[in-house]
Write a structure and sequence with these properties.
The protein is mainly alpha-helical. It has 9 helices and no strands. The longest helix has 30 residues, at 39-68. Bound molecules: protoporphyrin IX containing FE.
Length: 203
């Protein structure tokens, strides 16, 4: 029988601890009254940024495997995607609950009047079915091909999230541009590797 290696599980533990740090940091800031003059805005900004970072990290897994043949990184793909969804949900809940007090008329007005909210909502609505179908059971139910096709939408969700960011920063485009460049590079690696593989397959 193969012996279980302790290294990946301790790495996973560290990973999960790190993934919860942004929440703990926010709770600590709230407790210590260190979230600035507008704590709701601080929570919105931090959860939004964290969601985008996790989303991009989840998209880094396949390029890492393709470039370096690191199969172990796949262990982190599902949790990374789910953490992205967790932070996106906290982000949306902060907006709807803390900012607008669950007043759906006001929320609908905000979505109609601010393009970036509509764009953010689109990204969230794409992430939702991806999170719901992230289980092994859903994969078996959809079949690997349809599951893969559906989960490729994560690139679109990330692109739309970057657009959401770009629309709300107005003239300070540096950060959305950096996130956009990272996304383009990740997509580029996948496309190039797919082309190379095809060429090899054709001989
Ligand atoms: C219904 C969906 C969403 C709504 C209503 C929404 C709303 C907002 C609002 C109000 C802000 C702050 C604007 C400001 O005060 O300057 C914001 C910022 C942001 N949101 Fe969203 N958002 C949504 C979905 C998403 C999703 C799905 C992501 C990422 C996956 C995301 C990522 C971001 C980022 C990166 C920021 C900027 C953070 C920063 O400047 O540090 N948002 N969003």
């Amino acid at each position: 029988m193969k012996e279980k290696r302790p290294f990946p599980s301790s790495l996973q533990l560290v990973f999960h601890l790190l993934a919860w740090l942004p929440v703990l940091w926010l709770l600590w800031g709230f407790w210590q009254d260190q979230l600035g003059l507008n704590p709701v805005r601080t929570i919105t900004l931090r959860t939004g940024k964290t969601a985008l970072i996790f989303l991009l990290l989840s998209l880094t897994v396949t390029p890492l495997y393709l470039l370096f043949d690191w199969k172990w990184v796949y262990r982190f793909r599902r949790p990374l995607g789910l953490y992205a969804f967790l932070y996106a949900t906290l982000h949306v809940l902060t907006f709807v609950g803390l900012d607008y007090g669950f007043d759906w008329t006001l929320v609908a007005d905000a979505i109609q009047n601010n393009r970036y909210t509509l764009v953010g909502l689109t990204a969230f609505l794409i992430l939702l079915p991806l999170a719901l179908t992230s289980t092994k059971r859903s994969k078996a139910w959809l079949g690997p091909i349809w599951w893969k096709r559906l989960h490729r939408w994560s690139y679109l969700a990330a692109g739309i999230a970057v657009l959401h960011y770009a629309l709300l920063v107005r003239q300070y485009y540096t950060q959305p541009l950096i996130f956009g460049a990272i996304l383009a590079a990740l997509l580029g690696i996948r496309l190039v590797m797919a082309l190379v593989k095809k060429r090899y397959a054709l001989g």
